[in-house]
Amino acid sequence: MSYIDLDQLPSYATLKTLARSPFDLTARGAVAAQRIQSCVSSTAGFDLLYGTQRVDDGVLAALQQLADEGGAVEQFLAMKKGAVMNRIEGYECENRQVLHTATRDVFSESPLEPASSAQAAKELEKLQRFLADLAGGALVNSRGESFTGMVQVGIGGSDLGPRALYHALAAFRISGRRVDFISNVDPDDAAAVLNGLDLSRTLVNVVSKSGTTLETLTNEELVRQAYSNAGLKPKDHFVAVTGEGSPMDNPERYLRSFYMFDYIGGRYSATSMVGGVMLGFALGYEGFVEILHGAHEVDVAAEQRDIRKNIPLLMALIGIWNHNFLNCETLAVLPYSQGLVRFAAHLQQCDMESNGKSINRQGGKLAYQSGPIIWGEPGTNGQHAFYQLIHQGTTVIPVEFIGFRHSQYDQDMLVKETSSQEKLLANLLAQSLALATGQEHENPNRRFPGNRPNSILMGQLLTPRSMGALLAIYENKIAFQGFIWNTNSFDQEGVQLGKKLATRLLGHFAGRRRDAAYSAAAEDEAGWAMLQMAGLLDD
Ligand code: G6Q
């Protein structure tokens, strides 16, 4: 497959022309009922309402052409079938397959990439046995009591996605079970979590694909120490999820060990054992399997070539329209669902680590923008905080709203004739319309410019299944955008330099600890001076 830069595709010029006069959402009657009703796409239980985006039939036709010319669906299929997508031609790179979709293709009669789905199925069986042992009393603490808590120790991809899913699905937890997370190497993170726990009834799930991550290995030692101090044997409580053959692949040290594989990127690993062990503990095996089913349904639907029938692809293309053609630099993801409190944080990683690149897959410099800055917080809280800038600021920020028709706990009541859920959703819809249509006013302070593009992703209820679908909608959206931008969305070289320098600075701490007269070598003058000026070398 030959990969072509976005600006070399014929549809690029068409879209550039169309972008000179995008659909005016503020024109009288522009956002009419008929437009709202016709600009809807449905996939896997979600409806995408995009009548409040600055698109019309001409733009959508050009975006369809862009998807076709850029081979978006072909590349997606190649990825799912095991092509080596994680590479930059002619340069040293990770050079890997990208097969997170295989973790949810396990229940198909003929998985697209049978070998990796078989590996995923094997891990699922191990998980099922582990969870049955916990539920059935075969795995208990030294006093014969069941485990009620789990602490997941991991960072980045081994934390954000799983944590976002746990919060999203807390309403579906097995009664009496809870999960906490330690990720930051800031010792206060571990201390704050450990101080409130009954360690004797808590499992620790150490998650690191590489088995070499500084933060995770350090936190593992802190937590092991806390267990030893409490007179408990870490081996009876600690579980590992790691890559086969990694330094953490040492079943002797753990109660159980699970694998993830090098063809699953960290930020795409929530549906592997990286999320599976913790989510299985919290929700039960069936709960985790439901997540996989929801994600798989979207993975299949995302093969659809018609962009109006393929939510991840349509979101990807509208995102490109807003970013590359309407020149909007950031994207706010605003869920009107408290459960999704950590979802934007997960998307920040998944999107920005994937598409925050400035070279193409041939190593050449991109002549156009790649990934936008992603940020967000749940509504309605955000309305009382940063929405001012979204409505009236000098920068135009496209918004992806997410909402559900029903609340998770169904504990609601009428206050002044409306339920809280109705208040939540009325606010969501009102924000969408207000941003799109704006408001004329003779007082400039009360004027809303409008034409602030946004869409609403609407589901029925946030359940394990719909959460799996939502996760895959975004994962696939991000992959589609990377394919069209011709970037490698699956590596993360940009995190390496800081890691290298931190290791060097740590060497100075250790050097000083060994020898009070130690000072840095000449080439590290700036680093040494920073340590001094930050007051970190004072005795
Ligand atoms: C994700 C990145 C990164 C990674 C963490 C943790 O795609 O690769 O965020 O997940 O650095 O890595 P380990 O799982 O190897 O500890």
Structure description:
- This protein is 42% helix and 12% strand.
- The protein is α/β, with parallel strands linked by helices.
- It folds into three domains: 6-95 and 304-493, Glucose-6-phosphate isomerase like protein, domain 1 (Rossmann fold, 3-Layer(aba) Sandwich), CATH 3.40.50; 100-293, Rossmann fold (3-Layer(aba) Sandwich); 494-533.
- The strands form four sheets. The protein has a six-stranded mixed beta sheet, with helices on both faces. It has a five-stranded parallel beta sheet with strand order 6-5-7-8-9, with helices on both faces. The protein has a two-stranded antiparallel ribbon with strand order 3-4.
- Bound molecules: glucose-6-phosphate.
- Glucose-6-phosphate binds next to loops.
Number of DSSP-assigned strands: 15
- What number is the mean pLDDT? 97
Global shape: globular
CATH class of the largest domain: Alpha Beta
Low-confidence stretches: none
Helix content: 40-55%
Concise summary:
This protein folds into three domains: 6-95 and 304-493, Rossmann fold (3-Layer(aba) Sandwich); 100-293, Glucose-6-phosphate isomerase like protein, domain 1 (Rossmann fold); 494-533.
